Amino acid sequence: MDLFTAIKGRRSCRKYKPDVVPREKIERILQAANWAPSGRNWQQWEFLVVSGEKRDKIGQLYGELAAQRWPDPQARTPEQKVFLQWAETLGGAPVVIVALTKTDADPNTRKMNLESVAAAFQNLLLAAYAEGLGTCWMTGPLRREEELKELLGVAEDQEIVAVTPLGYPAEWPAPPLRLDPDLSQKVRWIE
Ligand SMILES: Cc1cc2nc3c(=O)[nH]c(=O)nc-3n(C[C@H](O)[C@H](O)[C@H](O)COP(=O)(O)O)c2cc1C
Questions:
Q1: For residues 41, 33, 86 and 146, what is the CA-based torsion angle, rounded to 10 degrees?
Q2: How far away, in angstroms, is 151 Cα from ligand 1 center?
């Protein structure tokens, strides 16, 4: 698939088929992530591929977080209910990928580490799309990062950067509008 087609076509998928994703496909996607640029070439990422009960627990945790946003069940709008359903079930995706990095007391190094893992994560999302799979970059569940770390056996000196479900899409959302399609506000040419 052409790179620009992948960049434009990738969407945050929130509804998946239950079909199992072959391990080789997941490995190819992780290889693409592993080829990202990284600060000082530390390649400071690690990935957890989570399925089974622990996957369900991540959904439960995210569902609880989402429910706190709209505590009164009677007052929830249909859109809020759909979002809650997505959060609790992770859209039915069979696998969740969690990206980790090393924490660092120095804010500059921490920023560099986060940037490196974000680059790897975007590679992962694009490669998944090229493989016919859906993903949804999520930082919402990180509001309970300590619990997540314990659940997944993440070391004290590591932090979770992002989480995504992975699976065959059951539905693709429409592309959201670009806020500044002609880049007249978001880009300044300094010459
Ligand atoms: C850093 C980051 C955090 C995000 N966190 C969440 C999240 O917690 N839950 C969620 O449903 N989507 C999350 N998203 C997905 C965005 O909502 C989505 O990218 C945006 O609406 C644009 O849609 P698109 O990805 O289909 O282009 C996140 C995306 C990014 C880049």
A1: -30
A2: 23
State the pLDDT at residue 71. Answer: 92
Ligand 1: lining residues by beta carbon, under 6 Å:
11-12, 136-140, 173, 176
Residue numbers of the domain that contains 12: 3-167
42 C-alpha vs ligand 1 centroid, how far in Å? 27
Give pLDDT tens digits for 149-166. 999 999 999 999 999 999
- Residue whose CA is closest, atom 7 of ligand 1? 138
- The CATH number linked to 108 is 3.40.109.10
Is 175 a member of any domain? no
Model confidence pTM above 0.90: yes
Lookup: tokens for 23: 């391990």
Q: How many domains does the chain have?
A: 1
User: What's the gap between Cα 35 and its chain centre?
Assistant: 18
